[in-house]
Structure formats: structure tokens, C-alpha cells
Write a structure and sequence with these properties.
Helices cover 65% and strands 8% of the residues. It is α+β, with helices and mostly antiparallel strands. It has a single domain, classed as Outer membrane efflux proteins (OEP) (Up-down Bundle). The longest helix has 70 residues. The protein is rod-shaped.
């Protein structure tokens, strides 16, 4: 505290107009970016709760799950035989003279016909639908992981700027008291006006910094509201959860192969295999069998009743007449399978690069956080204390004192930034590498 340095109070001298204008402008603009106060009974929004709410309220995951279930139902239907066809009619009805019993071949017919798909196409089509269902199921899990990571990053942004605002609130009283001390010294004739102007200027700059911080926090809450809705505007928890020690990179890369996005791409390749098999089945013949019963009326020439008729028909495709179409469909299935395999490799490389980058960042940031905590901040605080002692004994410069104290604020703010950046990198490790959340 600096109250022991305050001399006999005198009438205040006028502060330069431009410094006063900056402070008034800063104070006015700060009101524009105030976050709406939350109710006193609202509990702080923790990181874990933010992730849970984001997953519960996510419609994209539900849509993918519904698609997966729809394809599973199609797989059950694909395994069944086509619905039999029923038919009825009159055959060989004479146009001249008419009469149902005039001609011996006139009859009323009823029958059914059953189509039999080519080869093993029913089983293969079922497997194709199941593979596509697996694709959407894995993408639903991937969507959940993406939403969880996105909500975590958005929460961390809000936490970052909220902590920055708290640091401003902790620093401002110090600068205000320092300005009061400088003003007392100036009024007592011990210091020049330049020190007083510099003290007021530092306060004005801090007010302007607060405007920017509140604007950033407001924008961060808007981004968080994409995942949480109104819950994004609740008070933010003051404690940043400590992430467990990250596994080694080899373990993370091995776990990456079990990531839902990779599994979805793998299932897409499997679906391509089934599509190729289905295209090859079209080289085989489909066929159908039909049975018809014919009722005849009237009398035969010998006077007896005319016999009813039964007909049996078998119909078979001629696949060799459709070779051009079949070859084109097989070629298309082969190319689509190659495309799916290439996309799997491409996405795996991309995700692996993101994972390695996140692991490198996390490891580097861990060392920087410890250095900032254990070395930089203690030295900055010592420097500020030394500058204060020197200023109080008239052997130091006010600019050095102001610069040292502002540096403490900047170093504390940098520590928060590093901690948040490390937490974001860990969020990627959780998503892609299966690190413990």
C-alpha cells in the first residue's frame, strides 16, 4: 500500500484536458460491452457442464443417428424376397359372338408370380446397407466428439476473457492508489507534473484495455451460445480444470485409428466392397416363377365338362445382353471404392497432422506455463517492488515504476493465455487421441 507515502493534502492542480478526455471516453465505452448480469441464484457454468449441455442439445448428432437407424431398417428389408405379384384375368375370350363358353380355350385365370433376385444379391445388399449404417453411426459419434471439443474451446475463450477482466479489476485499484500518491507528491512539490500525467494515462489505457476485453468476452459468449443457448450467459466458473498428463505420442497416434471419423471412412471403404460385390452379382441371371389357375365353363364335344387349366412359367434374365451396362456399373463401383480408400488415407493424414501439432503445442505450452509461473511472474513482481522502493526514496523514475507494475499485469494475463492455449491443445488430444478428459 502507498498510503504511508501520502503527504499533507493540498488543493488539486488541474490535470491536462486530453488525459481527462481519454478517461471519460474509456469509462463511457466500457458500458457498451458489459455482459448482462446473471441472477444471483445461478450456479457458475463449469467446463464439464458446458460439454454435457452441448452434447445433449446437439441436433446434428440426433440426425446422424436417425439416418443410421433408417439404413439398418433398410438392411432388414433388403434381405427379404420381393413381394409376390398376384394377377387375375380372362384368357382367349372370343371377340365375335362373345360368350364365356363359346370357345374351349376361354377361361378365367388367377395366379401369382415370385421374382428371385440374381445370385446372392439379397444378402450383399443387406451388408451394403449395414455398412452404410455403420458410416452414419460412426459419424454421429464423431459429431459428438466434435461438439464436445468445440464447446470446450468456446468455454475456454469465455474463461480467458473473464479472467482478463478480473485481472484488470485487481490492477486498477493499484494504479488508482499510485495516481493518488503521485498527485500528493506533485501537490507537495516533490514530483513534476509529468509523473502525474503518466499515472493518469496508465489508468486511461487500462480502461481502454477493459473495453477490448469485455468486447472479446461478449463475442466469446456468443460463440458459446451456439452450443449452449442461453446457458452460455451464466456466470463462468473461476477455476480452470487441470488436465491429466497426456499419453505419449505413439499411444495417441494408435488411438487415432479408433477415432469415429476414421471408423466412418473405414466403413465407407467396406461399403464400397459390398457395392462391388453387388455389381458383380448383376452378371448373374435373375428369374421368376409363376403359377396360374384357369377356370373354363361349358361342355367338351363329348358332352363332359371342360377341364380347368394350370400353367407354370419360369422367366429368366439374359445377362449377356446387358454386358455394357453391367461393366459400367462394376467400373463405377470400383472407382468409388478407390475414392473412399483415398479419402480414408487423406483424412487420416490430416487428423494425424492435427494431432501431432496439438501434442507439440501442449508439450511446449506446459513448459512455458511452468516457466511463467515459477520464474517470469516472481521476477516481474520483484522488479515492481524494487521500482516502488526506488521511487519512494526519490532514486527511481516513475516511468520505470509504472512500466514495472503494468508488466506484472501483462505477465499475469500472459499466464492465463498460455493456460487456456494449453487447455485447448489438450481438448484436441482428447478428441483425436483419446486422452483422458
Amino acid at each position: 500500500m502507498f498510503t504511508e507515502c501520502v503527504g499533507r493534502p493540498l488543493a488539486r492542480k488541474k490535470i491536462p484536458v486530453w488525459v481527462t478526455a481519454i478517461r471519460i471516453l474509456a469509462g463511457s465505452l466500457a458500458l457498451l460491452f458489459l455482459v448482462a448480469p446473471a441472477s444471483a441464484d445461478e450456479l457458475p457454468l463449469t467446463l464439464g457442464e458446458a460439454e454435457r449441455l452441448a452434447v445433449e442439445q446437439e441436433p446434428g448428432e440426433r440426425a446422424l443417428v436417425a439416418r443410421a437407424e433408417a439404413l439398418a431398417q433398410r438392411a432388414n428389408a433388403a434381405e427379404q424376397l420381393p413381394v409376390p405379384q398376384w394377377r387375375a384375368g380372362i384368357a382367349n375370350y372370343p371377340l365375335s359372338g362373345g360368350g364365356f363358353d363359346q370357345e374351349p380355350m376361354t377361361m378365367a385365370q388367377v395366379g401369382f408370380q415370385q421374382m428371385m433376385p440374381a445370385g446372392d444379391s439379397r444378402r450383399i445388399r443387406k451388408q451394403l446397407y449395414l455398412a452404410e449404417s455403420t458410416v452414419f453411426g460412426a459419424r454421429a459419434a464423431g459429431r459428438t466428439a466434435f461438439v464436445r471439443e468445440s464447446a470446450r474451446v468456446a468455454w475456454l475463450d469465455v474463461y480467458h476473457w473473464h479472467r482478463a477482466e478480473a485481472l484488470v479489476a485487481e490492477t486498477r485499484p493499484w494504479l488508482e492508489e499510485l495516481a493518488s500518491v503521485v498527485r500528493s507528491h506533485y501537490e507537495a512539490g516533490h514530483k513534476g507534473q509529468q509523473d502525474l500525467v503518466r499515472a493518469e494515462l496508465e489508468l486511461a489505457k487500462l480502461d481502454l484495455r477493459l473495453i477490448e476485453i469485455r468486447q472479446q468476452e461478449s463475442q466469446a459468449r456468443v460463440r458459446l451460445s451456439r452450443w449452449l443457448g442461453d446457458a452460455a450467459y451464466r456466470p463462468i466458473a473461476q477455476v480452470l480444470p487441470q488436465a491429466p498428463l497426456a499419453p505419449d505420442l505413439a499411444t495417441l497416434q494408435e488411438n487415432l485409428r479408433s477415432h469415429p471419423e476414421v471408423l466412418a471412412d473405414t466403413a465407407r471403404v467396406d461399403a464400397g466392397d459390398e457395392a462391388i460385390s453387388l455389381a458383380r452379382e448383376k452378371f448373374k441371371a435373375a428369374w421368376s416363377i409363376g403359377v396360374t389357375y384357369g377356370y373354363r365353363s361349358g361342355r367338351a364335344p363329348d358332352g363332359g365338362a371342360r377341364s380347368d387349366m394350370v400353367s407354370l412359367q419360369v422367366t429368366r434374365d439374359l445377362p449377356f445382353l446387358g454386358r455394357k451396362q453391367q461393366n459400367s456399373e462394376l467400373g463405377a463401383a470400383l472407382q468409388e471404392r478407390r475414392a473412399s480408400e483415398a479419402e480414408l488415407e487423406q483424412n487420416l493424414r490430416q487428423l494425424s497432422a492435427i494431432l501431432v501439432d496439438a501434442f507439440t503445442s501442449y508439450s511446449s505450452l506446459d513448459a512455458r506455463v511452468r516457466s511463467q509461473q515459477d520464474r517470469v511472474l516472481p521476477l516481474a513482481k520483484f522488479s515492481a517492488e524494487a521500482a516502488l522502493v526506488a521511487y519512494q526514496s526519490d532514486s527511481g523514475d516513475f516511468n520505470d515504476l509504472a512500466r514495472a507494475r503494468v508488466q506484472v499485469f501483462e505477465d499475469r494475463l500472459e499466464l492465463v493465455r498460455l493456460q487456456v492455449a494449453q487447455a485447448k491443445a489438450y481438448a484436441t488430444l482428447v478428441n483425436l487421441g483419446g486422452a483422458q478428459s
